[in-house]
Amino acid sequence: MVRSRLSQLDFNYTPPPGFDTRKVKGLVASLLALKPEDHGKSTALEIAAGGKLYNVVVEDERAGKDLLERGGMKKRVTLIPLNKIRAFKISAEVRAVVPLSTPGY
Amino acid sequence: MPNPAYLQKLQNAKHLAPGKVRPALSLVGYPDEVAEAIAFVFNDTLICDDAATAQAVTFARNVGVRSVTLDGDVYEPSGTMSGGAAPSGSGVLVRAQELRAAEERVHDARRTFEALEREEAKGRAAREAWRARMREHEIKEHELGLLQEQIGSSNAARVRRCSTLV
């Protein structure tokens, strides 16, 4: 019921034969947890992330390739392979302490 | 971007606007394994409480980092600014929280259901054992009745035989 109001948060694919679904971590937006007192900063964070909010995090470039070629996705998606991405380094000072249970992907 | 430089900029930004600026990355939680991807998504962007802060921070020579205000206006170190109308699809992160909470509730409910089902199965085994035992008991009682009848009749026969002898 909640999901039907959230078509933006939908990410569907058909796992090709032999594909390990654990290698798909999910949409960035679904991976983020926000403390209740920071809900007022939701808009700012969404703008800060921009289109990348709807990128999909995958384990490695092989899983990404499988997904793009044989995942049967209905929408165009950008994938972030964890083993290839080179990002700005986060330090302990910058990381938030937000209790988060890994969503069921 | 090397870390020490960013920490320095962060400190400078906090000095310019105490309590009104923090890195976007410091506001979100995420599973450890995807940390690198989330860092890529937000990069060094700062979240500022108001436009004055964002402007001061982004255009300060000793900060010069992209910042976004709570209203969603963006200040780029290159000089561009964007904003105006309220962004579409706003609140998606809050709704994602609701979705996660709902999914957790579904998960919990399913687990409770499975536990109850297991208990029910265990109870069913006991009930079936009881029923089988009851059936056995009834059969035994019936056999006992038959045997008693047999004995009774044989006794009677014996008595009859005795009486005829007398």
Helicity range of chain A:
10-25%
Look at the structure and give the mean pLDDT of chain B.
Answer: 89
Derived from helix and strand composition plus strand pairing, the structural class of chain A reads alpha+beta
Shape of chain A: globular
Distance between the termini of chain A: 18 Å
What's the story with the biggest beta sheet of chain A? Answer: 3 strands, mixed
Number of helices of chain B: 4
**Number of structurally distinct domains of chain A:** 1
Named at the architecture level, the CATH assignment of the domain at 3-84 in chain B is 2-Layer Sandwich
- Please provide the ordered H/E string of secondary-structure elements of chain B: HEEHEHEEEH
The neighbouring-strand order within the major sheet of chain A is: 1-3-4
Describe this structure in words.
- The complex is a heterodimer of chains A (about 100) and B (about 170).
- Chain A contains 3 helices and 4 strands; from the N terminus they run E-H-E-H-E-H-E.
- Chain A is globular and about 45 Å long.
- The two termini of chain A are about 20 Å apart.
- With about 170 residues, chain B is of the alpha+beta class.
- Chain B has a domain of about 80 residues: Alpha-Beta Plaits.
- Helices cover about 65% and strands about 10% of the residues of chain B.
- Chain B has 4 helices and 6 strands.
- Chain B has a 5-stranded mixed beta sheet, with helices on one face.
- Classes of the chains: A alpha+beta (about 100), B alpha+beta (about 170).
Task: Please describe the structure with a list of short key phrases separated by commas or semicolons.
heterodimer; A: 105 residues; alpha+beta; three-stranded mixed sheet; 4 strands; 11% strand; disordered C terminus; B: 166 residues; Alpha-Beta Plaits; five-stranded mixed sheet; 4 helices; rod-shaped
